[in-house]
Design a protein that fits this description.
With 187 residues, this protein is an alpha+beta fold. It is built from six helices and eleven strands.
Amino acid sequence: MDERRMDEQRTVKVSKYLSKHLRHQPERIGLTLDEGGWVETDTLIAAAAAHGFRFTRAELDHVVAANDKRRFAIDGTRIRASQGHSIDVNLGLAPATPPPYLYHGTVARFLDAIRTEGLRAMNRHDVHLSPDRETATRVGARRGRPVVLSVDADAMHRDSHLFHVSANGVWLTKAVPPEYLRFPERH
């Protein structure tokens, strides 16, 4: 296996580790995130090492910089996940006016429930919406053959639904009722 491939695998492994512990289970390695989800990078590196997973600050910086979805943010000596938490954090995002349409990538097996219940946050704080069809297609493809739903964000906003946009461009809202969704004709 060439060195570049090993580096890519290592980057993915560190990224998944960070996601698990900065978004879902910080307590598993003894971390306490502040109310905004931040933790000192040195504390994170030490906690991971104490639990058998070692990485360097350089590797951490590489994972943050190389992640095409910008899942993590570094602010000086602190790091946090940009969104997607299942734990209680306040990302401090101001309400934002969305574009007329946003998009959600899913797969066909969820469509019946979505038609009935709309989009729900499930185990996360918010529903994640993409600013364009291409991104939503990539998101949906993680679970199989993607289906992209259009969200009438303009109508939702007019009807007083709040939207926020994370540092990495993901649009967040508490739920999308079915009346604001447009389904592809073939599904």
